[in-house]
Design a protein that fits this description.
The complex is a heterodimer of chains A (about 575) and B (about 475).
Chain A lengths: L2 E3 L13 H23 L5 H21 L1 E6 L3 E4 L2 E6 L6 H7 L2 E7 L4 H12 L10 H8 L4 E5 H4 L16 H10 L21 H16 L2 H15 L3 H20 L3 H16 L5 H14 L2 H13 L5 H11 L4 H10 L3 H15 L15 H14 L5 H5 L7 H13 L3 H7 L8 H13 L6 H8 L2 H5 L2 H15 L4 H9 L6 H18 L2 H11 L4 H20 L5
Antiparallel strand pairs in A: 1-4, 2-3, 2-5, 3-4, 5-6
Chain B lengths: L1 H33 L8 H16 L4 E6 L2 E4 L2 E3 L6 H13 L2 E6 L5 H13 L7 H12 L5 E5 L5 H4 L3 H4 L1 H25 L7 H16 L1 H7 L8 H20 L3 H12 L10 H4 L7 H7 L2 H9 L7 H12 L19 H16 L11 H9 L8 H11 L7 E4 L4 E6 L11 E6 L5 E8 L9 E5 L9 H4 L1
Antiparallel strand pairs in B: 1-2, 1-4, 2-3, 4-5, 6-7, 6-10, 7-8, 8-9
Helix pairs in contact in B: 1-2, 1-3, 1-4, 8-9, 8-11, 9-10, 9-11, 9-12, 10-11, 11-12, 11-17, 11-19, 12-16, 15-16, 16-17, 17-18
The chains are: A mainly alpha (about 575), B alpha+beta (about 475).
Chain lengths: ~575, ~475
């Protein structure tokens, strides 16, 4: 649909207006349309918009000074000036004419003296897109603005009122009833004049006038929202009927949620704390407190989580202690939303608080965290795995196993931690999968865990690793870790293997030989038996200084372990 | 031939100017209805009318508008309206008929000031179906020194003088009635939606309350007079609208701005919305309530809050409505109900409480006894100021409705019977209101002569206020 403002070339004199008048009226409308669009596109301080407004003001001023008023007849899609269409737009969403027409406006009259703020105010109200479910329309908004030089005439002004519809009964004779009065009163019975209400109690004294002024001022200053909150607060404190109480708890919680969403965070927080305190008040019946807990859980919605996250990151309204308190008030029903919040908050210190609270209140039902394990934000998944690790429940093992091959190494590392901690034997079997992980750090960590938790079933697979071609290419740290795991898990059984590693000659690759010895020493240190020590001493006698030093260090480590009382595996 | 053409052209020009005069006069009257005297909005339409009058005088023609056989004429030239100007023509003709004016002649020398005063007289004088209207209009013109505008009454033999529709003659009252019933319609719609648990929409109500405020600022008496309408079947709706009107009248006395009045009007209109949750069997019970039923009835402020909290968003307006619904049965000393640890009473709450009580006392509610006479209701309430009602607001309320409120049935010392139509603005003369005589000293029903008891020439004084319900007299029919 296109917007059409009558062109000047089309202007033809009408019985009511000269060509010049119509031309100027058209120019005013062109300028109005341009400015109205400008309001939608530009910021209020945009120089272009300022120029549009000035131009419109100038043209309208000129028109009003010449012709006294600018009156537009409003049709469904057209605006007419003295019979001439000066504007037409058939798109109901865009058309200024349609918006005014559908709100019942039939004429709009701008009169001399019109000021810029009135023009801009008018265009902003008429031009603004307004959802159909809001309680204000152009008429009510213009009424509130009370523009002195702008008059609208509504369709209601022309509608005749049907008295019958109003239920008005046409006057009829009441003679019979009147006669009844006169029968009751004989002339002698006419009473004396009634006592009047004394004058002094009908007129305001200075003191009362002063009171009224102060009451008005106080009312003006007071935010009505404060009173509404106070009303509901008093209902919750004073109402004993469980049904009514439950309804108002729900209303209060909804109010808090709405206030969060409308940016009134301080109010929302106060309401939440109030409800939290009420829930802890032992004088309140158990059932009512449960009702509060349930309602509190509903306050933290995805939208409110965003608002709270923004508040945490951009203001000091919530200290770590207050945040902790707030989250504890929201309680277990809101764990899911707290996870959402965790994914939104940027301040690390505050994330730690959220994690702590989630660990505390999520421990009884860790499965609530499962949906967040498939979240697209790796950092949130990592934090959730961390929380589950802290909780250490086997109930979430299957879900976490799905993360073993997660593309993000930091998540795999956290999963490894979970598997280490969780007491389920199945978890340890899963550790084997990490031996083939892409990351050497992960592989090493998996080996360490398998060794430290004495997973003897892992010995065979680990030994198998050493025979693979890829293993030879891995760095010494990983090879050492493998040997340590073998030593830890295989103990004296592995001495022949280590002996071979210690004594094998690499004629043209001294570095390789040294690496083999280092790994074997590391493995024997983990075997830490007398046989292991004997083997090292035996080999040290035939090796050169550099290798001997390595072996001596290994022997020292075994001795230290023995001194600490750590038994051989 | 040439002179004929010339005459025709002149006539065409005169028609054009005449139509412009009618249209501009229409805009002037409309503006005068909506804006108080002295408001800047009146200046442009005023200048336009004067410009047209001068243009007509410049052409040595008579700047007069005349009604004849359903047409408007300027001098002897019939002005045929085009589609765009039809509303203006109909309006002007309607206004002239209502005031029994046959013609308006703007004579040379007329000033903008005179035209302005003349335009406002249409709002100042209430058209009633009596030749007195025209006389009153002339008197008012004299009082306001409008000397360069001459009027003629509608001719005895003229078509217009034969049938004068009474309802048309009462335009201002008609407007008030229109607004009143529109408001009833709006509140009933909202209450019905509330009953069905649907989302409450306030747009329509807001519009009618805004119209009500405009009407109140233009002619307070008319609107306050409408509160005498008593409808048992639709008590809650009537009552809500009455409380709205009475609250607005107090708010106006306090000096609230228009937007603030709108908030007050809305709060008053919805003060009883909680009753939509009360079972009809209780609400419409024709006998006194049991203790249990009273307990249920007393829940309506809380039920109102519950309903209103479901409104989309909680802005200043909806908050004020909630406060009104919650506080309207709380007394000054925080007794009343609901009995909760709430120790604050807003100005709105104090106002609505008084308006609510007064209308409740003077109405024959289904669940209540016979209504109290307005003056007795006032005395009853005055005796309880300080404890139950705010004394300052109560005084302002009496300022609005007088000591003989509109609708009071009075017996005069002449043994005539009358109904109060309007109170004297001077507090010294509150005991002498403007009344409509409904029966002569012999008890014969009369045509409804209007009398200002404060006027010494009237020579009548009030002897007693009577209870119209005792005699089953419907006073509203004399007012509405």
């Amino acid at each position: 649909m296109t917007e059409m403002v009558a062109g000047q070339q089309e202007t033809v004199e009408t019985p009511d207006a000269s060509r010049e008048e119509l031309t100027l009226a058209t120019e005013v409308m062109q300028s109005m349309v341009k400015t109205s669009k400008g309001f939608k596109i530009y910021l209020p301080n945009n120089p272009l918009l300022t120029r549009f407004v000035e131009e419109l003001n100038e043209k309208m001023g000129k028109h009003l000074s010449l012709y006294g008023e600018y009156r537009l007849d409003i049709d469904q899609f057209e605006l007419r000036y003295k019979g001439k269409t000066v504007y037409e737009n058939r798109d109901p969403k865009e058309s200024m004419a349609f918006k005014m027409y559908s709100d019942g406006i039939r004429f709009v009259i701008f009169s001399e003296g019109l000021e810029e703020y009135e023009l801009c105010g008018f265009l902003e109200i008429v031009g603004k897109d307004r959802p159909s479910d809001v309680d204000d329309d152009i008429v009510t908004l213009l009424w509130e603005k009370n523009f002195p030089h702008l008059v609208t005439v509504l369709t209601d002004d022309f509608l005749e009122f049907d008295a019958d519809v109003g239920g008005h009964v046409a006057p009829s004779s009441q003679q019979e009833k009147i006669t009844g009065i006169y029968t009751a009163y004989s002339p002698e019975e006419i009473p004396p004049s009634p006592l009047l209400i004394p004058q002094k109690i009908l007129t305001l004294s200075d003191k009362e006038t002063d009171w009224l002024r102060k009451a008005r001022e106080a009312d003006e200053k007071r935010k009505p929202l404060d009173d509404v909150i106070q009303i509901i607060t008093s209902i919750l404190v004073g109402e004993h009927d469980p049904v009514v109480f439950g309804e108002f708890v729900g209303i209060m919680a909804k109010l808090a949620e709405n206030l969060f969403n409308s940016g009134e965070v301080r109010y929302a927080l106060n309401i939440t704390w109030f409800l939290g305190n009420l829930a802890r008040n032992e004088q309140i019946p158990e059932a009512n407190r449960a009702e509060i807990d349930r309602a509190l859980g509903t306050i933290l919605s995805p939208d409110t989580a965003k608002i709270i996250a923004r508040t945490i990151d951009t203001s000091e309204l919530l200290s770590p202690d207050k945040l902790r308190d707030l989250l504890l008030i929201f309680g277990p029903p809101a764990v899911g939303r707290m996870c959402e919040l965790l994914g939104l908050v940027e301040k690390m210190k505050m994330r730690k608080v959220i994690i702590q609270v989630l660990c505390e209140i999520g421990c009884d039902a860790p499965e609530v965290f499962i949906p967040y394990l498939s979240d697209s934000r790796w950092y949130l998944v990592r934090n959730i795995v961390f929380i589950l690790t802290r909780i250490g429940s086997p109930a979430t093992l299957d879900s976490l196993m799905a993360l073993i091959s997660h593309r993000e190494v930091r998540i795999r590392k956290e999963v490894l931690g979970y598997l280490e901690r969780v007491p389920d034997p199945k978890a340890k079997t899963c550790l084997l999968k990490f031996l083939r992980d892409d990351s050497s750090v992960i592989r090493i960590r998996a080996l360490q865990i398998l060794a430290s938790t004495r997973c003897t079933f892992a010995l065979k697979p680990i030994l198998a690793l050493t025979t693979s071609e890829q293993f030879q290419e891995r760095d010494i740290m990983e090879k050492k870790a493998v040997c340590e795991a073998i030593g830890e898990l295989g103990a004296d059984q592995m001495l022949p293997l280590f002996r071979e590693m210690l004594t094998k000659k690499y004629w043209f690759n001294k570095a390789k030989e040294k690496e083999s010895i280092i790994c074997a020493v590391a493995g024997l240190v983990k075997v830490r038996s007398a046989s292991a020590a004997k083997l090292l001493e035996e080999v040290s006698a035939v090796k050169g200084d550099e290798i001997r030093d390595i072996i001596i260090q290994g022997l020292g480590a075994i001795a230290a372990e023995s001194a600490k009382g750590v038994a051989a595996p | 031939m040439e002179s004929e053409l010339r005459t025709e052209q002149l006539e065409r020009e005169m028609i054009k100017v005449g139509k412009a005069l009618v249209t501009n006069f229409f805009v002037l009257l409309k503006t005068a209805q909506n804006y108080r005297e002295g408001h800047a909005a009146i200046n442009a339409p005023l200048e336009n009318v004067l410009k047209m009058v001068k243009e007509i005088h410049r052409r040595n023609e008579e700047a007069s508008i005349r009604v004849q056989r359903g047409y408007l004429l300027m001098g002897e030239i019939r002005l045929k309206p085009d589609a765009a100007g039809l509303d203006a023509f109909n309006f002007i003709m309607g206004e002239m008929k209502r005031y029994l004016i046959g013609s308006i002649n703007f004579t040379p020398g007329v000033t903008a000031e005179e035209i302005k005063k003349f335009a406002y007289i249409f709002s100042e004088i209430e058209p009633i179906p009596s030749p007195q209207t025209y006389v009153k209009f002339l008197e008012r013109m004299q009082q306001r020194m409008v000397v360069h505008i001459e009027l003629e009454t509608l001719g005895e033999d003229g078509e217009e003088s034969v049938e004068v529709d009474e309802s048309e003659l009462m335009d201002n009252r008609k407007k008030s009635r229109k607004v009143y019933y529109q408001t009833i319609h709006a509140i009933s719609e909202v209450m019905d939606n509330a009953k069905m648990g649907q989302t409450l929409r306030l747009r329509k109500s807001k519009r009618v309350v805004q119209s009500m405020i405009d009407q109140l600022l233009a002619a307070e008496t008319n609107l306050v007079g409408l509160t005498t309408i008593r409808c048992h079947d639709e008590y809650t709706y009537n009552h809500s609208v009455n409380v709205c009107i009475l609250s607005l009248a107090i708010g106006q006395r306090i000096g609230f701005s228009k937007p603030k009045l709108c908030e007050l009007g809305m709060a008053a209109l919805f003060h009883d919305i909680g009753k939509s949750e009360i079972p009809l069997s209780i609400l419409n019970k024709p006998a006194e309530f049991t203790r249990e039923e009273w307990a249920i009835m007393q829940q309506h402020p809380l039920l109102g809050v519950k309903k209103l909290m479901k409104l989309k968003g909680l802005d200043a307006l909806s908050s004020r409505i909630i406060i009104g619904a919650f506080e309207h049965h709380l007394y000054c000393d925080f007794s009343g109900y609901p009995r909760l640890p709430y120790k604050r009473l807003s100005l709105f709450g104090r106002i609505i409480s008084i308006a609510d009580c007064y209308d409740g006392l003077t109405s024959s509610r289904v669940y209540s006894r016979t209504p109290m006479q307005p003056d007795k209701a006032l005395r009853y309430m005055l005796a309880r100021t300080g404890k139950i009602y705010d004394p300052v607001i109560m005084k302002l309320f009496i300022n609005c409705i007088g000591i003989y409120p509109i609708g009071t049935l009075l017996l005069l010392d002449t043994r005539e019977l009358c109904v109060v139509l309007e109170n004297n603005p001077d507090p010294e003369k509150w005991n002498a209101p403007r009344v409509k005589i409904i029966a002569d000293s012999q008890g014969r029903e009369t045509g409804g002569e209007l009398a200002d008891l404060a006027d010494p020439r009237c020579a009548r004084t009030v002897m007693e206020a009577l209870d119209p319900n005792r005699y089953r007299i419907d006073v509203s029919q004399y007012i509405v």
